[in-house]
């Protein structure tokens, strides 16, 4: 497809961190139960036990959501996969 | 459009049943999933795989695809029949929480033909998602990078120049306000996930940057000052005398920046010369005679202890 660039914008970025569980579910297209299951498996940690995910944990949830969706891995499997990937 | 042999991509026969297709897909998906795979072209392969599976897992799509005929060769240009919908052209038709479209959204940037880029597709809440491939140097230097975003409604492209905050790590995201889809008077945001491109020398762990440094046997024994690459430029590293292979040395604050700047961890790797002239070889032979060193004495003791217990 032909690329027509209509404008060039110089933008400020806003780091995604301290995402509420509700927002996180919406952004990753997952159900709240899925997030809770990952927390129970120890695959995901809440920031200071508040119901928010810091930027690293949000990145982890995104990865978990993709593993679930694309490979059909369940939360215990995701926990194991993330653990093994951490060790690499 | 280019003809793709979906059966060949999945490695199945043309008369394969649904189960074999699913099995073949899952196996290859695990191999090439961009979150898991170390293969260089994993993203492209995974996308191709999903395109094939999206069609072959669906009875109607598969029948329509089969009707295209078996005479097409992969890569050949062909005219799709009316109503033919290849994967990717029909957003969110199933509406389930986990579907490939989301993945295509997220990794849309990597699949675009034109290098770094771009974009996503309309979502219920007008937010768009994109992935941005970054080299470690780009992240470290914090120079502005360009993103192209294709607007899902109008097809227009915008070029965005953004400075990626250098304390972000692989898989983490930033938001560009108001750069999502527009509908009515409302505008969504653009979420950009950064993906660090593997570096030939450096590996990031947390804020630290790890590297392996080959050293000569005499450098490890006698000690040496060695020029070492860091993200911030070349620095001098002092290798202390009698350093074992595998020893890690720390270059403080030479890792990634952030509230707690990382270090560079240099792991020594003693390498043995394989192309020795006769004079050098004679030195080693002399050393073998004169040096009273048995690197396996501990092993032998352990074997002895094991037998006794």
Core attributes:
heterodimer, A: 88 residues, alpha+beta, Multidrug-efflux Transporter Regulator, Chain: A, Domain 2, 4 helices, 53% helix, 15% strand, B: 309 residues, Helix Hairpins, HSP40/DNAj peptide-binding domain, 3 domains, four-stranded mixed β-sheet
Task: Describe the protein's architecture and organization.
The complex is a heterodimer of chains A (88) and B (309). With 88 residues, chain A is of the alpha+beta class. Chain A has helices at 21-28, 32-40, 55-71, 75-87; strands at residues 5-11, 14-15, 19-20, 52-53. Helix content of chain A is 53%, strand content 15%. A two-stranded antiparallel ribbon of chain A has the order 3-4. The model of chain A has no long low-confidence stretch (mean pLDDT 88). Chain B folds into three domains: 1-88, Helix Hairpins (Orthogonal Bundle); 120-197, HSP40/DNAj peptide-binding domain (Sandwich); 203-301, Urease metallochaperone UreE, N-terminal domain (HSP40/DNAj peptide-binding domain). Chain B has nine helices and 13 strands. In chain B, the strands form five sheets. Chain B has a four-stranded mixed β-sheet. The longest helix of chain B has 15 residues, at 18-32. Chain B starts with 5 loop residues before the first helix and ends with a helix. Mean pLDDT of chain B is 80; it is low at 81-123. Strand 1 of chain A pairs parallel with strand 3 (157-162) of chain B.
């Amino acid at each position: 497809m032909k690329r027509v660039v209509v404008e060039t914008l110089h933008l400020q970025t806003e780091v995604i961190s301290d995402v509420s569980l509700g927002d996180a579910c919406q952004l990753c297209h997952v159900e709240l139960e899925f997030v809770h299951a990952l927390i129970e498996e120890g695959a995901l940690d809440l920031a200071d036990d508040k119901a928010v995910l810091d930027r690293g944990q949000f990145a982890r949830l995104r990865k978990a959501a993709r593993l679930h969706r694309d490979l059909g891995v369940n939360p215990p499997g995701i926990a194991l996969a993330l653990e093994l990937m951490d060790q690499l | 459009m280019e003809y793709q042999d979906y059966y060949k991509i999945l490695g199945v026969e043309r008369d394969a049943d649904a189960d074999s297709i699913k099995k073949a897909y899952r196996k290859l998906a695990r191999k090439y999933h961009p979150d898991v795979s170390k293969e260089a072209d994993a993203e492209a392969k995974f996308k191709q795989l999903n395109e094939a599976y999206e069609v072959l897992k669906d009875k109607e799509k598969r029948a329509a695809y089969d009707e295209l005929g078996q005479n097409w060769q992969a890569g050949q240009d062909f005219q799709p029949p009316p109503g033919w919908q290849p994967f990717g052209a029909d957003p969110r038709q199933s509406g389930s929480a986990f579907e490939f479209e989301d993945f295509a959204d997220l990794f849309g940037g990597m699949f675009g033909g034109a290098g770094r880029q771009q974009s996503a597709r309309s979502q219920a809440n007008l937010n768009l998602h994109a992935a941005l491939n970054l080299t470690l140097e780009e992240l470290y230097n914090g120079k502005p990078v360009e993103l192209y975003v294709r607007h899902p409604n109008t097809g227009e492209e915008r070029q965005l120049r953004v400075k990626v905050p250098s304390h972000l790590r692989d898989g983490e995201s930033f938001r560009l306000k108001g750069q999502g889809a527009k509908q009515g008077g409302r505008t969504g945001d653009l979420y950009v996930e950064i993906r660090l491109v593997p570096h030939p020398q450096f590996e990031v762990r947390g804020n630290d940057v790890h590297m392996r440094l080959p050293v000569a046997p005499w450098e490890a024994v006698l000690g040496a000052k060695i020029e070492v690459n860091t993200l911030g430029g070349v620095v001098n590293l002092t290798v202390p005398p009698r350093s074992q292979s595998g020893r890690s040395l720390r270059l403080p604050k030479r890792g990634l920046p952030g509230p707690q700047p990382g270090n560079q961890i240099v792991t020594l790797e003693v390498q043995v010369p394989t192309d020795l002239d006769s004079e050098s070889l004679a030195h080693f032979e002399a050393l073998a005679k004169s040096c009273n060193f048995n690197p396996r004495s501990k092993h032998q003791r352990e074997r002895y202890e094991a037998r006794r217990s």
